[in-house]
């Protein structure tokens, strides 16, 4: 089971690195900007989580993560050489895949560290959204987490599904949580779902 979570972690890093590279392309950044944005997106949330949980930062003793970031970024750059434009929805879909992976991984790591289910949900959400938030701030965009469409809420829902099912079947819990997060986020992108709090005044 640990091996599956490690593979999922690397997959999440790759997807978020692609999302960071796509945004760097949209912002016409240079090579250094691409590496910075891809790296911050891919490991920013997990790094923050580990520091809060007071556990070893996951990438310090495993260079595989940076190798995955580099390969994902370079592969995206090579693909973009054949495309003059990348639609915004591709970036949003890549980001949605990333948060689906990282919601589960963050919640699982918190549970393994002895945290309560409530803290696991918070850590899962933080792992999923914080890297993207740092990416958007560096790129001078409004962070997706602050926009009206469902974003962090989808991670909360996925993490809750995971902590409920995980004690009975970790594999099913992992799959169900990822599907929940991804389906809600893609639905929010497609249908502009939101949790309206304030009424519009005209």
TrEMBL record:
<feature type="transmembrane region" description="Helical">
    <location>
        <begin position="119"/>
        <end position="138"/>
    </location>
</feature>
<keyword id="KW-1003">Cell membrane</keyword>
<feature type="transmembrane region" description="Helical">
    <location>
        <begin position="174"/>
        <end position="193"/>
    </location>
</feature>
<protein>
    <submittedName>
        <fullName>Trimeric intracellular cation channel family protein</fullName>
    </submittedName>
</protein>
<feature type="transmembrane region" description="Helical">
    <location>
        <begin position="89"/>
        <end position="107"/>
    </location>
</feature>
<feature type="domain" description="Glycine transporter">
    <location>
        <begin position="93"/>
        <end position="166"/>
    </location>
</feature>
<keyword id="KW-1133">Transmembrane helix</keyword>
<feature type="transmembrane region" description="Helical">
    <location>
        <begin position="150"/>
        <end position="168"/>
    </location>
</feature>
<feature type="transmembrane region" description="Helical">
    <location>
        <begin position="32"/>
        <end position="52"/>
    </location>
</feature>
<comment type="similarity">
    <text>Belongs to the UPF0126 family.</text>
</comment>
<feature type="domain" description="Glycine transporter">
    <location>
        <begin position="7"/>
        <end position="79"/>
    </location>
</feature>
<dbReference type="GO" id="GO:0005886">
    <property type="term" value="C:plasma membrane"/>
</dbReference>
<dbReference type="InterPro" id="IPR005115">
    <property type="entry name" value="Gly_transporter"/>
</dbReference>
<dbReference type="Pfam" id="PF03458">
    <property type="entry name" value="Gly_transporter"/>
</dbReference>
<keyword id="KW-0472">Membrane</keyword>
<feature type="transmembrane region" description="Helical">
    <location>
        <begin position="6"/>
        <end position="25"/>
    </location>
</feature>
<feature type="transmembrane region" description="Helical">
    <location>
        <begin position="64"/>
        <end position="82"/>
    </location>
</feature>
<keyword id="KW-0812">Transmembrane</keyword>
